[in-house]
């Protein structure tokens, strides 16, 4: 029996004739077996996006040789390319504060296989979730964030992230705003959950804003963190009906379900390499 | 056999002990048979809202005598009261411009009995929907609205509304902004549909705004028109999922389904007297 | 300051004039302050259902004296009555097998206050969830259920339930069928979750049945357990879209979210005494 | 300027290496410009499905020459192939009985461009919808269906369908069961709407069945008609929440919205050639 490995190939480029042909020819000539392919053309900008999964035998090509062989097509079509081996799990750091529902949800789903990442550490500005980290056997780092020592706190965080060789940071209701310097170290690698249906109710206390406005539906949004608060590319949104019968506490209780779902969905899509960012939007493949 | 008529009683007041007792006592002593009762207490303001439906025999009390008999309770509890006979259909005027889906939807549902109002007229600043009016046998009034003659146009509209003794104006994708003077003639009696999930994307071209922002869910909102654009009390909202695969035209197509639903739902609730406005919010009973 | 306690009163009876009046008079005369009231009349059978919450001062009436005082109305209107003090938490036993997502969900939500019961014990026919019980400090009882010793196993279960004075049994993906004898000990006090949109796909492997049928939506259902498999009164249902892109594993993964939600929602409604069973249906108040 | 035409190519075949490569090579060598491509592999059966849209210049190839050129690939990969020119609208016959909401919905959406078919005729066993046909300028054929003359009625229907060269029959709440002989003339070309969430509540009066069972969600299903009642391949399903507060009439009213949506969605997908039937399931591309 020949061992196989699965390659994930992400492509963005201006749309031109023959693109899919050239890519599938490449796979065919490398004796790859195409498992999945999804593509999208943005009609406004005429930009092309593709995600392919294909199997190759384990000992034929490594990442470097595949990238070298892709170079001519890449040049010809002016492509951006990302290439992963599916077998390599992503290293994920989870940031939390006091609330625990998103943290629990990510760790339970990862334990049961619904999510599939390597939870390398939990970093929190509060101590209280340490016992959850212990329950799931994930290293816990308590780094208080005092306003006057925020820079030092972020330096400690970055050092820890570096030690774990982190691929993705998940802000699981982490109640601190990250500095532009911090964000620039992990571009499009920080996923946040905002507890509103963005762009409605940016900023603080979105449930209270929604309650005061008398909306009939509330939502939650997961997105990549950028320097503009709550304005990064949206990955997933979910909503639930509310009515005059729901108190503010009812809004919060219902919203917690949404927060868990949009955040775990975003982590799932990102770690499976199904999200392509384009300007301030995302292409999220199925 | 004794003929019955059904009374709808709407009450708003500060919450006090004995309110429901006193009201149901009133009904009991008037030999009324309670069919439905719904109530709500707003915990922030301690305000009480109630809607009751009860049957009385046809020849015992008219509206005036019931209101007189309610006067002592009304005073004791500092109530606002509205009283209707269910058998009296509401007179509804529909305002349209060019698009026809909401107009069709209201008229079809009213014809089939899903809605239950008296469609007394259609007023439009365009001619094209006249054949729809004819198909459903509703008088059609074409009143062009030129920017420089807007005041005159509104005067014509108001005159027509007065002739038909209109109880409710429904803006079925009517693309003109009404003046404060016009609105003040029909307070909480003008229902608009906005093609976004308010408060996101107020103003013009909400689908395009949503498309540019890259949201994953779009919505539509029906609300009472007030002097502040798109900020009146929300009656109903609905949403639908979109993705990168949906073009702007796709957003619009999906949104049209929502617009019809939130508008007809609002008309249904309003004409059944199930909406109570409270500050800038609504209590919408089932 | 006078201490208050909150009374929950559930009423079912044939509909007759004056019912609400008499009940609210009762509350008024007992110096109760009505907090919530919801009612429903089943038009087919002309049956009346009501749930009231009212505050009374702590030292005036106990449960027994209230029930005695209600006796005349109860007789006059042929009522079934249940009366609870809201402050008394319900004793809940959770039954599990191997899967853990529903168990986790119930315990996390109870810890955070979204649910509000006394988790008196976890009973499982498998050992693997013991560490979850420990994490949440809930007693764990491992009772294997061998087909040939099922009677003995149920006797052990019933003995434990009796010791904890259990009010409600929650089957959190418990993969054993309970005997009629067992069920008869806890009528309308056993809540099950079935992983399909009942009445579609009763019995074993509902996700596989749904997958084979090629449905475009899957669901989950929480219901009271009766002697007829998957046919008890439905408390809550939720659904999610699927497509040809979802594998059977995808169905299962999406379904797990639904199972958690319908089960915790049912537990929430039941422990708040908001569910009234009527023939094989439920009235679930908001 | 060169005129272009758009080709839609549907492929089903056992999955083999190089499939996508060979197809896109074919398009490339025919100077086609790929606009859309979607594919799916059924993992259980290892079957491959693909839908491609590509532009070619108007005067280079006709349908016949393209099919001839595809023959070698077709043979090599054991493919089923369908090929359409997007510019050719599908001829659709709508069958109705008394209810009108689905009929209205299809014709309004087609008029406004949301649907895009050629409505060649309406066939009804009742006279009442004739004025709707007139309003939309569609030929109306009244063919009563008496139980004892059903064969003759179907012969009349088939003759009319033949005259209009009908591509698709849409049963818009047509309340007659078609004979196997009739169905065999239009295999996978008859779309029905069933007013339940199939496979729950097959057969007559599904809303009443749902009402009696006390479900909390109702649905509607569009599917291809086969000889087994309500068991054909499902194209689309939608659902809406109900509660004890909804009467049977409420179920019906809410369900009508769903019926319209699932039926028009199915017609949209079918006429755009986005549905592939596989055993008793469908692949519905976006």
Written overview of the protein:
The structure is a homotetramer of 286-residue chains. Helix content of chain A is 34%, strand content 30%. Chain A contains eight helices and 13 strands. The two termini of chain A are 31 Å apart. Chain A folds into two domains: 4-85, ACT domain (Alpha-Beta Plaits, 2-Layer Sandwich), CATH 3.30.70.260; 91-284, Rossmann fold (3-Layer(aba) Sandwich), CATH 3.40.50. In chain A, helix 3 (101-112) runs parallel beside helix 8 (248-271). Chain A has a seven-stranded mixed β-sheet. In chain A, strands 2-3-1-4 form a four-stranded antiparallel β-sheet, with helices on one face. In chain A, strands 12-13 form a two-stranded antiparallel ribbon. Chain A has 286 residues and is of the alpha/beta class. The first copy, chain A, is globular. Chains A and B meet through strand 11 and strand 13 of A and strand 11 and strand 13 of B.
Descriptive key words:
homotetramer, 286 residues, alpha/beta, Rossmann fold, 2 domains, four-stranded antiparallel sheet, 8 helices
Brief write-up:
Chain A has helices at 19-29, 63-77, 101-112, 130-135, 150-163, 180-185, 206-213, 248-271, and strands at residues 4-14, 33-42, 47-57, 80-85, 91-96, 118-124, 140-142, 168-171, 190-194, 217-224, 234-241, 275-278, 281-284. Chain A has 286 residues and is α/β, with parallel strands linked by helices.
């Amino acid at each position: 029996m020949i061992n196989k490995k699965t390659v994930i190939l992400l492509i963005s480029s201006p749309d031109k004739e023959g693109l899919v042909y050239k890519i599938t020819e490449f796979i065919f000539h490398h004796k790859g077996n195409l498992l999945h392919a999804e593509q999208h053309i943005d009609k406004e900008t005429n930009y092309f996006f593709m995600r392919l999964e294909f199997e190759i035998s384990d000992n034929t090509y490594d990442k470097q040789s595949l990238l070298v062989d892709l170079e001519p097509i890449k040049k010809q079509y002016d492509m951006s390319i990302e290439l992963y081996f599916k077998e390599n799990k992503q290293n994920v750091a989870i940031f939390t504060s006091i609330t625990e529902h998103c943290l629990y949800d990510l760790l339970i789903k990862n334990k049961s296989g619904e999510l599939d990442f390597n939870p390398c550490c939990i970093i929190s500005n509060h101590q209280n979730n340490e016992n959850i980290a212990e329950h799931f056997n994930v290293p816990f780092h308590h780094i208080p964030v005092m306003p006057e020592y925020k820079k030092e706190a972020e330096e400690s965080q970055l050092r820890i992230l570096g030690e774990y060789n982190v691929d993705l940071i998940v802000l699981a209701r982490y109640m601190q705003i990250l500095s532009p310097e911090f964000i620039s170290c992990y571009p499009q690698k920080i996923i946040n959950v905002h507890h509103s249906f963005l762009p409605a109710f940016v900023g603080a206390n979105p449930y209270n804003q929604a309650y005061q406005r008398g909306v009939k539906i509330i939502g939650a949004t997961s997105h990549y963190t950028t320097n503009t608060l709550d304005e990064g590319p949206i990955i997933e949104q979910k909503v639930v009906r509310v009515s005059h019968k729901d108190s503010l506490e009812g809004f919060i209780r219902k919203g917690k379900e949404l927060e868990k779902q949009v955040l775990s969905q975003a982590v799932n899509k990102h770690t499976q390499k199904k999200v392509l960012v384009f300007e301030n939007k995302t292409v999220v493949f199925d």
